[in-house]
């Protein structure tokens, strides 16, 4: 286990190293103020973080993503699992999901802001909406795929509906649900950036846009690094949860 974790960390560090080298080469080649070399961006990141300016915006954005993920997960997973096992309910709910799922949720941002006002509520609602549809579709399809023989085996042991969901359907669907969550997080962080640049006064997205408008390119790239770090952290948390709770996949 430790060897696998070490290899993964080494691979990630190697990838980061080559990205930084590529960034440095392009910055030297272009030699433009809007693309400073990586050392300038990292120095700005450290300076702004130590001052607490960037850390404050990072905390605000992190809380928005975390709260959105928790709400979406708690709503989408149970409903998706039930829809996958209940054909009558799925017959009525699935058409609604089919119509709403492909719609780009970001276009509703102005309407959401009008309804919910400024602050955290519209941003959390929008991110929750995006993650919700991604997870519920995956959870429903995964629940439908639970082998019939496995369900019948548990019923032959007089297992209750709750026990079937807890000990069979939930473990069977968890890896697929976490994969969908991992995929949707990238979109969620991108949408967070757009939401924080729209009628907002805090968050990493606002910080990046503000630095760009003031042509403080070091600060702008420091914000981009912070946004990338946020995405990497939430992705890593989901990856860790899968590693801990889905060990049986690797047996």
Core attributes:
MetI-like fold, 0% strand, mainly alpha, 251 residues, 2 domains
Descriptive account of the structure:
This protein is mainly alpha-helical and 251 residues long. The protein has two domains: 1-31; 36-250, MetI-like fold. It is built from ten helices and no strands. It has helices at 2-30, 38-51, 53-85, 87-100, 109-116, 120-144, 148-156, 161-196, 204-213, 217-245. Helix 3 (53-85) crosses helix 4. The longest helix is centred in the C-terminal third of the chain and has 36 residues, at 161-196. The two termini are 12 Å apart. The model has no long low-confidence stretch (mean pLDDT 88).
Q: Pick out the low-confidence regions.
A: none
CATH superfamily of the largest domain: MetI-like
Tell me roughly what share of residues is in helical segments.
Answer: over 70%
User: What distance lies between the first and last C-alpha atoms, to the nearest angstrom?
Assistant: 12 Å
CATH topology of the largest domain: MetI-like fold
Tell me the major beta sheet. none
- Rough shape? globular
**What is the top-level CATH class of the largest domain?**
Mainly Alpha
